[in-house]
Amino acid sequence: MTSLDSSAAQILEEIIENYQKRAINVFFCRVYFKREIFQRLRDSGIEKLLRLCEGEQFGLRQRVPPYYDEILDALRVVDCIESSCVLHGDDEGGAGVEGDNRSYFSDFVYDGLS
Fold this sequence. Notes:
Strand content: under 5%
Number of helices: 4
Helix content: 25-40%
Shape: globular
Number of strands: 0
């Protein structure tokens, strides 16, 4: 993400809220380090929504929480969440929850060149 206007921020916030209502965790990775983008994400409420899955809770350091530096870091958190059955908005442990909130971890490493 290299830019974000207010209309896009509003739509993005609604998308994230709808995913979270369906118990789907949302992660932002490799956000372009630009003050205006971070301020827009904060002002729109998106940053607050993303704080539900900060890496520190799972032993991962982030330069700018709640944003992940690498996609692999976010995938590690997804793996932790799924292995412990802790899902967004689920205080009962997530037993038996299937469908949209399943993810698949690949050992393929993207080098950014392909």
